[in-house]
TrEMBL record:
SUPFAM superfamilies: MFS general substrate transporter (SSF103473). The lineage of its organism: Eukaryota, Viridiplantae, Streptophyta, Embryophyta, Tracheophyta. It holds the Pfam family Sugar_tr. GO terms for cellular component: plasma membrane. Its main location: membrane. This is Major facilitator superfamily (MFS) profile domain-containing protein. One of its GO terms (molecular function) is transferase activity.
């Protein structure tokens, strides 16, 4: 999953970042303390994939109802939409520090509610609380880091938030694997997230407010000059711990100019949110920026990434790996690749450009999704047949009722059995040979396992299963360096300064809403279309997304914000659909010459007839 703001890094910034933080460790303390919010963001969005396997075992209604599984997963995303919206208001009203601490309280409450949940509805309630925290952390943590970092290493420090998000997802898979043999399994998996929230809350108590937020916040209350001076002195004392003495005065002057500019922008935009939104949509530059910003955010989610991050153990089971522990171990690989991809993006995004990396990423994603479609199609086609004798005589009343009533039971295979919402008990000698189609119940499952056979209810044994894991890994490798991080970088650069909050907010809401749609419908789609059909559908969405990225998203690498604004003002067209500057000059010259010739003809005396 790959949600949270990441500013553009420069490959030279990382060396400078190391030197600066070595001399001033307080800077890294600020960044890592706030970055725990990103870690919690990643952990809480990733942990549910493994926990869901064991929740299904404890609550029969969850196991039988795909919509209930989807709701448990997606309610955190629904909460994040609300959390991001209110988080913006809390940031402006009370500051970054308070926002992070409120998010920690929400994380902690959500973790405790889920860990103690006596019923599925309590898990859903806990997921909503966690979602509120995720929404607030996704925007506040990078903002705090950015405003409390020296400008020359800001990109590198803010980029650590993106790494901590993917690192949190990787950690969640490790925790899931660690608790597979512990009593309470999913309760520990979900509840342990409360510990980092407590740690961050305590750390934030000893840290200052962002100096920029501090000044802007108190300015909004119209304090008298003396109290304003005290607030400025407090901000200066914070900056003294971040900047060397020779840079301090310049930073204070820059901060003063920034605040004054913000006051002017606020006056120009109007006081109400409705006025600001109206002004944004009337501005052609902002509209074109939103075309690009919303396009990349929606395309990111409809690539299907969060189906992999939220449901990867389930997808691995679709491929024929029945064991929960095996499914989570294999899923750990995909999560690890996602974290590595974030580092690759930091290294290459300023070298090769945003647009190019996204286009290459989308081409790789489409190729992997098409291959996964073929693999899952082969898994379904070549699944083991049903042994009629074993299915009818395995145990008393154990046979699948749909199989018993079938007009042509000889045509059934394992996949037919699972589609009928029954279970497949594999052959004890060779799991790829015909087995039994049995009713889906805990007693019959236990009876199958007592005979030292493997029980399948989500996927069938297949020799193609390992290929599914390989191409899931390649899918992540294609996704993470490009579509994983670049959409957030584009959204940090594509809007004029005075509209950056509004534009970025609209794009972020588009991201979370798309995330909700995908996560809420994935299991339903797999039941309606099959795994192969679902991956093919995502490949089609990616093809559409690739066209939109090619047409609407300009390259912003190396451009100043003013240059990006001019680019959007002129109107962006893909290079293949616009003439080169030299051709344009030639055409203009020809047009000018033609116009002059026509003028001369009109003014020159014509001979009489």
């Amino acid at each position: 999953m790959v949600e949270g703001g990441i500013s553009k890094p420069d490959k030279t910034e990382f060396t400078e970042c190391w030197k600066t933080t070595w001399k001033t460790p307080y800077i890294m303390r600020l960044a890592l303390s706030a970055g725990i919010g990103g870690l919690l963001f990643g952990y809480d969005t990733g942990v549910i994939s493994g926990a869901l396997l064991y929740i299904r075992e404890d609550f029969h209604e969850v196991d039988r109802k795909a919509w209930l599984q989807e709701t448990i997963v997606s309610m955190a995303v629904a909460g994040a939409i609300i959390g991001a919206g209110f988080g913006g208001w809390i940031n402006d009203r009370f500051g970054r520090k308070i926002s992070i601490m409120v998010a920690d309280v929400l994380f902690f409450v959500g973790a405790i509610v889920m860990a103690l949940a006596p019923a599925p509805w309590m898990i859903i309630l806990g997921r909503i609380f966690v979602g509120f925290g995720v929404g607030m952390a996704s925007m506040t943590a990078p903002l705090y880091i950015s405003e409390a970092s020296p400008a020359r290493i800001r990109g590198a420090l803010v980029s650590t938030n993106g790494l901590l998000i993917t690192g949190g997802q990787f950690l969640s898979y490790c925790i899931n694997l660690a608790f597979t043999h512990v009593t309470g399994t999913w309760r520990w998996m979900l509840g342990v997230a409360g510990l980092p929230a407590v740690v961050q809350f305590v750390l934030m108590l000893s840290l200052p407010e962002s100096p920029r937020s501090d000044i802007v916040f108190w300015r909004g209350f119209g304090l008298p000059p003396l109290m304003k001076a005290q607030v400025v002195d407090e901000a200066k004392s914070i900056l003294e711990r971040i900047y060397p003495a020779e840079e301090l005065e310049d930073e204070m002057n820059a901060l003063k100019i920034s605040v004054e500019a913000e006051k002017a922008d606020e006056h120009a935009l109007g006081d109400s949110m409705a006025q600001k939104l109206k002004g944004a949509f009337k501005n052609v530059v902002v509209r074109r920026g939103l075309y690009a910003g919303v396009t990349v955010q929606v395309a990111q989610q409809f690539s299907g990434i969060n189906t992999v991050m939220y449901y990867s153990p389930t997808i691995v089971q679709f491929a024929g790996f029945a064991s929960n522990k095996t499914a989570m171990a294999l899923s750990l690989i995909t999560s690890g690749l996602n974290a590595v991809g974030s580092i690759v993006s930091m290294t290459f995004v300023d070298r090769y450009g945003r647009r190019r990396m996204m286009i290459i990423s989308m081409i790789g994603i489409i190729a992997c999704l098409v291959v996964l479609t073929i693999i899952f199609s082969q898994v379904a086609t070549h699944s083991p047949n049903i042994d009629h004798f074993e299915s009818m005589h395995f145990a008393l009343n154990a046979s699948c009722s749909s199989y018993v009533r079938a007009n042509d039971p000889t045509s059934w295979n394992c996949m037919s059995c699972l589609r009928a919402e029954c279970g497949f008990c594999a052959n004890g000698v060779n799991k790829y040979t015909p087995g039994a189609c049995l009713a889906l119940s805990k007693d019959i499952k236990d009876s199958c396992r007592e005979k030292h056979r493997t029980w399948y209810k989500d996927g069938c044994p297949s020799r193609f299963g390992f290929l599914a894991v390989v191409f899931l890994g390649l899918y992540i490798i294609s996704y993470s360096p490009g579509m994983g991080t670049v959409p957030w970088i584009v959204n940090s650069e594509i809007y004029p300064l005075r509209y950056r909050g509004i534009g970025g907010g609209i794009a972020a809401v588009a991201n979370w809403v798309s995330n909700l749609i995908v996560s809420q419908t994935f299991l339903t789609l797999t039941k309606a279309l099959g795994s192969a059909g679902t991956f093919l559908l995502f490949a089609v969405f990616c093809g559409i997304g690739l066209i939109f990225i090619f047409w609407f998203v300009p390259e912003t690498k190396g451009l100043q914000f003013e240059e990006v604004e001019k680019l959007l003002q002129a109107g962006f067209r893909p290079e293949a659909f616009r003439k080169s500057s030299e051709e344009t000059k030639v055409d203009k010259g020809k047009g000018k010459a033609k116009a002059e010739a026509e003028t001369d003809t009109e003014t020159k005396p014509q001979p009489s007839s």
